[in-house]
Design brief:
The protein is of the alpha/beta class. It is built from 12 helices and 12 strands. The chain has helices spanning 7-12, 32-40, 55-62, 83-91, 101-113, 128-131, 180-186, 200-204, 240-250, 253-264, 268-273, 278-285; strands at 19-22, 46-53, 66-74, 95-98, 117-120, 136-139, 146-151, 157-165, 171-172, 189-197, 210-212, 219-222.
Length: 287
């Protein structure tokens, strides 16, 4: 089955109000081409589920697409805090559920296992239980010891970026897979962008690096530099210069409007051209 789709065809599959799980981690291998397309679309009232978020979550908040964020962390690592996320968090402009990295994984795993919750000792004795009423402290029916029930997270859609894929929807992730496999398995519909589509025969040479199996994916879009400005190891590094420009633009409404016009409200090809073209990115960011 040929699952190739365009970026816009992927976004058409996401309804208003959808729960969208996003793969990658912080400023690493985020599906940013898909995120930018979602940001410039007419979609509204999304619930974003992310383990460690970065410019993906911040951009969707900055473009007014989000009604709720379920997250463990959102930031720009060495570059500092996420400005739109911080403002929305401080003003409570949208709803936030603060989880931990492990509990996000446990919530996705509960959906995969088709159980309503996962019991764990994680978060006991912490303030997570005071700021997040999604978790319930219960008693182990065998020992009567306290445990925490982490509810299942049930994404409608998962968006992830992989190094390579085939037309059947198998995906290769080179290096840390983060929570992408959990997102792909837990979501009702999983869509991938990839640096390059290979034949199925070529893909099988990657062995265990074929982390996303075709049974979990509904569509795949070939999008070179699709994770930019986040990194996609070993293909290219994180573009710290662009992220610094992003943070500067997000500090001013006028600058942010200019940033949206130049880097969000454009096609992926135009986005690359506005960086000087793929050749310029190769010279700066190829490992």
């Amino acid at each position: 089955m040929d699952k190739r789709m365009s970026i816009d065809e992927v976004i058409e599959q996401i309804p208003d109000g959808a729960k969208v799980a996003i793969g990658g981690s912080s400023i690493s291998r985020k599906p940013m081409a898909l995120i930018r397309a979602l940001a410039r679309s007419g979609k509204r009232d999304l619930t974003v589920i992310v383990d460690v978020g970065g410019p993906d979550v911040d951009l969707l908040l900055g473009t007014g697409k989000v009604k709720e964020v379920i997250y463990a962390f959102v930031g720009f690592e060495v570059l500092g805090l996420a400005p739109h996320f911080r403002r929305a968090r401080q003003t409570q402009a949208v709803k936030f559920q603060e989880w931990t990295e492990y509990t996000v994984m446990a919530g996705l795993d509960a959906t995969i296992k088709r159980v309503p919750f996962i019991p764990t000792h994680a978060t006991l004795g912490t303030d997570v239980l005071t700021v997040n009423d999604a978790f319930k402290e219960i008693r182990d029916p065998f020992t009567e010891e306290p445990v925490v029930a982490v509810p299942a997270l049930r994404p409608d859609v998962a968006l992830i970026h992989v190094n390579y894929a085939d037309i059947q929807g198998n995906g290769v992730i080179l290096g840390d897979g983060h929570v992408d496999v959990l997102c792909a398995k837990a979501a009702k519909s999983t869509f991938m962008s990839c640096e390059r589509i290979l034949s199925s025969e070529e893909l099988q040479r990657f062995g265990r690096d074929v982390q996303i199996l075709r049974v979990y994916s509904k569509g795949v879009a070939e999008v070179p530099w699709g994770a930019h400005p986040t990194g996609c190891a070993p293909d290219y590094r994180t573009d710290l210069r662009h992220l610094q420009d992003y943070l500067k633009a997000a500090a001013s409404p006028d600058e942010w409007h200019h940033y949206e016009k130049e880097f969000v409200d454009v096609t992926h090809g135009e986005y690359l051209e506005n960086h000087g073209g793929a050749e310029e990115l190769v010279s700066r960011l190829k490992v």
